[in-house]
Each structure stands twice: as structure tokens, then as C-alpha cells.
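Support request from a user on the community tier.

User writes: "When I paste my C-alpha cells into the form, the page sometimes reloads and wipes my input. The last time it worked, I copied everything first. Here is what I submitted, just in case something in the input itself triggers the reload:"
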């Protein structure tokens, strides 16, 4: 999707626009990145900007928003995934009063200078936070602390009122294109404030010009910013300060795939002037922040009540943990206000070991013509804990989920003939409890099932099977693997890989996968050279 920018948008702001504050920052390196499984470009980061006073322009009917919010709250728990917990406070709504008591300065003066947007966004926060697993007191505390630092719950547009001398160091990715110090200073003086004091500040048009320069196509993260006004259009917006078109696209996709109700229309945060929704519309402003939280798997780090946990969470929000001391201070306030010491769920200091992935045995829906099965992922959980909590009917809501097909209908002769045994050669993945492991040298796909957590083979009821993977394509091209039904598009697999930070790397945190038994119908192959009996999933 390509965002449309009106001609001369660099000099003439949209009439729906307002000012803003701190920027969106990139997440820190994952375990896989630091250990060499995945690579990331660490030369460029988003930056924590200075903040200026901003009064947002809100284009909505507050009364109608409030009515709609109440109607949306009154839906079944099966839709909104209420967490099963012994703590009565975990499921309590976050209140404006709590936010105002958490987002304070060192003298306890409230930093929320304008309540308009957070007051209107609050019902959406309490609905959609459950969609991304912010369902315990400790996770609520981490989220509120981070947003307190990011936007103070009111400043929804990144501030570009920069003094010229600071520009060169903060936005080196842009200024590195100039060879000499004189050239850099000349450009910085052209774009930034000449006076050191924030007032008089840059005009809105000057800030737009600055944003379009430093967040333009020359930036390592600006490859999609091909239009003149894209730097400003995709500058930091919303309660989380989302920056970069690619982030807007990814979070839009994440919301539409994982967060919306079946009857809810898709969000569009990238077409035309739609990025401005993140600062002008309460629902988009808060759900974009929640989508960032969910997509970047921040819950996996937000289960401990200590300063180190705040640092880990902060690195996901900001690659250099800028403002860390303030984030920790906000978390300490959240600790007191939300009474974490009284919570009976989610405040543990020692996390359970590993990750559990569960491939359901019940068909969930169809993608194209194929039945797919909901696959739930639970972080910081051992196989033993999963089985105990399932037996006691105390499983928490999953941290992440995808849908995978389980049929194995590869119909090319090069695959070889399908076995007449259901779980034999070239047929479906046998049910059981296995490990997930990353690929090794020479393997085609990125994630494999394993019996021992080391080699890519399992021993099912009909013998040893090697090379069973989770990959793209569909059952038409599968001879036993779990597929995403996405053709050649590997984005869903990449996203899953980014979530599974516990893939065995000698860290004693295994990823266990449970493949549940499923119901199927038996059919005959049209071509007996391919097979005699095939098994097809049913809803």
C-alpha cells in the first residue's frame, strides 16, 4: 500500500493536522539477532525528541464515541479474551485517574496537559489491550509507564522544533550524506532553530520541511518514503509515536489480522492522509500503540516487577532506551497506583522456562479452499505448566496466534507417492509433543519440528519423519509440513520467527509444540501415481 501525499504537502500542512512530541523508536535486538540467527540494521534509530505543548484537534463526536465504546464493551468474553486469573484487579479497566497519578513529574504534578484524547481513547484501550495480552496488573503497569514517557498521554505528533546544533548528532543518518563539517552545519542551520531557546520555535511549515528531510528517502529506514511529504506524513504519531511507513503498514496488517473482531472493518493507516488518524482519532491513536506492543512481543518481557524488566521493555520501545530513568520512575509509580504487591498473577520475578505452541485439532476457518487451525503461542511457559493449567482449566489467553493448514496434498510426482498410512511418508504431521528448532545449514525452511530439540526429525506412529517444517505455500505444495497458505509470501513465517525468541540456542528455554489430534475425511487421489488415500481436514 502506498500513502498518497498531496502536492506541496511539505509546505502546506493538512487542515486536520496538529503538533506533536516524542518519536517512535525501533525495538532493540532480539535474542536471535544477538546470536546471529537474524540480522538487523542498527545504524539507524528513531530518536526521543524534545516535547512541546500541543493541543490536539479532535475530529469526532465525543458523545457518539462514548456510546459506541459502551456498546463495544458489552460483548462476550469469548471475543475479547478475558484472562482467567485469581487477581480481581487484572481484569479491571484502566482508569483516567490511574493514568494521571502515574504520568507525573518528580513532584507528583500531572504531566497530562490535555485529557481530551486519552479520555476519548480510554474505552478502546480497555477493550483492545486484551487482544494483545495486556491482561495482568504487571503488564498494565509496564504499558502505562512506557506511554507516559512516549507521549505523556496527550502529545500525539512528533515535535521537530530542533536547535540546529543538536540535529547533526541526533539525526546522523541524514547528515552523514554531507562530506564536510561545514556542509553539515550549513544544512543543519537551514533546517533547525538558530536560537538555543525553544521559543521562538520553528513554524509548522518549517517543522514539516525538517521532517521531510531527516525522515526522507535517504534515511536507512526511509526506503518507502518516495514522495516529497512522506517524512512528515509518517513521522511519529499516536500515543506510541509510530514512525516510518513500513511500520504503519506492518501495524495495520497486525491489527487487521490479530486484533479486530470478525465483523469489524479493517483499519487503514497508510492510504492518502490516513496516517493522520493516529493523532486525530482516539481509537487509532491507542490501537496503533497496542498493535506495536503485540507485534513486537513485548509481553514476553513485561512479566517481572523490577528495574531490569523495565530496561528490557524499554529497549523494545526505543533501541537505545532513551529516557530509561524516567521510564523506570513511571513504572515505580504504576507499581504503587495499581497495587502490584496485591496482585496474584503476573508479578513473578522468576519466569517459567520456555515457550509452548499448540496447534489445535479443531478446524477454525478456511483460507482459500483449505481448512486452517488456530495455533496458540504461550510465552514464559513450560510444557508441564501448560498441561497442568489446561487440566485445571486455568490457561491464560494466548500471547500470540496464527492459523496453519495441516493437510498434506503435494501433488507433484517429484514429491514421491503418499503413504497409505495416515502419518506415513508425505502425509500429515503426526499428532504429539515435539520441539521447534531453527534451521541449520543446508535446510530449505526456517523452523522445523524435532523430537530431541537438536535434529529435524520426529518419530510418529508410522515411523520416523524428517524435515517437517512450518513454512509458506499451501497443502498443494506440502508433504507433511504445517503451512501458512500464503503462497510464496514468507512474511507470516518471519513474524512467527520474530516471536519465538526461545528457539533452542543452548539457553535452556525450549520451544515445545503440541500437535493435537484432528478429525478428517478420507478421499481418493485422482492420480494413483500420487497416492491412493488422502486425508482432508474438516470444519
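"...and here is what came back when it finally went through:"
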Amino acid at each position: 500500500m502506498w500513502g498518497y501525499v498531496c502536492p506541496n504537502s511539505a509546505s502546506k500542512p493538512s487542515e486536520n493536522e496538529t503538533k506533536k512530541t516524542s518519536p517512535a523508536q525501533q525495538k532493540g535486538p532480539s535474542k536471535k539477532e544477538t546470536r546471529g540467527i537474524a540480522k538487523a540494521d542498527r545504524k539507524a534509530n528513531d530518536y526521543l525528541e524534545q516535547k512541546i505543548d500541543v493541543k490536539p484537534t479532535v475530529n469526532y463526536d465525543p458523545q457518539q464515541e462514548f456510546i459506541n465504546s459502551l456498546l463495544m464493551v458489552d460483548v462476550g468474553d469469548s471475543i475479547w479474551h478475558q484472562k482467567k486469573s485469581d487477581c480481581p484487579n487484572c481484569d479491571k479497566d484502566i482508569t483516567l485517574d490511574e493514568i494521571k497519578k502515574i504520568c507525573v513529574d518528580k513532584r507528583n504534578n500531572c504531566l497530562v496537559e490535555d485529557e481530551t484524547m486519552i479520555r476519548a481513547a480510554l474505552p478502546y484501550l480497555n477493550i483492545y489491550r486484551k487482544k494483545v495480552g495486556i491482561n495482568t496488573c504487571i503488564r498494565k503497569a509496564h504499558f502505562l509507564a512506557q506511554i507516559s514517557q512516549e507521549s505523556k498521554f496527550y502529545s500525539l505528533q512528533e515535535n521537530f522544533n530542533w536547535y540546529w546544533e543538536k540535529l547533526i548528532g541526533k539525526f546522523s543518518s541524514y547528515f552523514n550524506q554531507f562530506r564536510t563539517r561545514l556542509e553539515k552545519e550549513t544544512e543543519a542551520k537551514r533546517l533547525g532553530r538558530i536560537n538555543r531557546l525553544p521559543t521562538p520555535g520553528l513554524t509548522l511549515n518549517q517543522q514539516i520541511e525538517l521532517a521531510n528531510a531527516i525522515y526522507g528517502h535517504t534515511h536507512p529506514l526511509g526506503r518507502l518514503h518516495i514522495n516529497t511529504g512522506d517524512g512528515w506524513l509518517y513521522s511519529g504519531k499516536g500515543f506510541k509515536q509510530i514512525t516510518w511507513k513500513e511500520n504503519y503498514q506492518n501495524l495495520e496488517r497486525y491489527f487487521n489480522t490479530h486484533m479486530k473482531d470478525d465483523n469489524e472493518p479493517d483499519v487503514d493507516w497508510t492510504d492518502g492522509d490516513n496516517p493522520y488518524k493516529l493523532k486525530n482519532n482516539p481509537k487509532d491513536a491507542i490501537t496503533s500503540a497496542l498493535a506495536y506492543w503485540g507485534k513486537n512481543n513485548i509481553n514476553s518481557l513485561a512479566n517481572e516487577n523490577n528495574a531490569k524488566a523495565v530496561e528490557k521493555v524499554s529497549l523494545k520501545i526505543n533501541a537505545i532506551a532513551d529516557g530509561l530513568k524516567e521510564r523506570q520512575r513511571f513504572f515505580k509509580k504504576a507499581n504503587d497506583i495499581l497495587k502490584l504487591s496485591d496482585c496474584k498473577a503476573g508479578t513473578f520475578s522468576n519466569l517459567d522456562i520456555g515457550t509452548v505452541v499448540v496447534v489445535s485439532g479443531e478446524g477454525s476457518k478456511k483460507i482459500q479452499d483449505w481448512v486452517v487451525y488456530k495455533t496458540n503461542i504461550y510465552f514464559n511457559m513450560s510444557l508441564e505448566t501448560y498441561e497442568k493449567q489446561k487440566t485445571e482449566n486455568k490457561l491464560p489467553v494466548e500471547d500470540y496466534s496464527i492459523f496453519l493448514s495441516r493437510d498434506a496434498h503435494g501433488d507433484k510426482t517429484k514429491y514421491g507417492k503418499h503413504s497409505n498410512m495416515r502419518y506415513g511418508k508425505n502425509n500429515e504431521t503426526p499428532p504429539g509433543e515435539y520441539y521447534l528448532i531453527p534451521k541449520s545449514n543446508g535446510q530449505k525452511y526456517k523452523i522445523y519440528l524435532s523430537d530431541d530439540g537438536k535434529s529435524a526429525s520426529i518419530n510418529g506412529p508410522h515411523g520416523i519423519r524428517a524435515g517437517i517444517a512450518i513454512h509458506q505455500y499451501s497443502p498443494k505444495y506440502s508433504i507433511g509440513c504445517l503451512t501458512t497458505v500464503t503462497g510464496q509470501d514468507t512474511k507470516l513465517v518471519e513474524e512467527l520467527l520474530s516471536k519465538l525468541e526461545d528457539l533452542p540456542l543452548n539457553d535452556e528455554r525450549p520451544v515445545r509444540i503440541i500437535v493435537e489430534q484432528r478429525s478428517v475425511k478420507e478421499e481418493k487421489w485422482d492420480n494413483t501415481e500420487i497416492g491412493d488415500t488422502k486425508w482432508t481436514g474438516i470444519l
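Agent notes: The reload is a front-end session timeout and is unrelated to the input. The first strand starts at residue 355 and ends at 367. Confidence is low (pLDDT under 50) at residues 1-84, 346-350. Escalated to web team.
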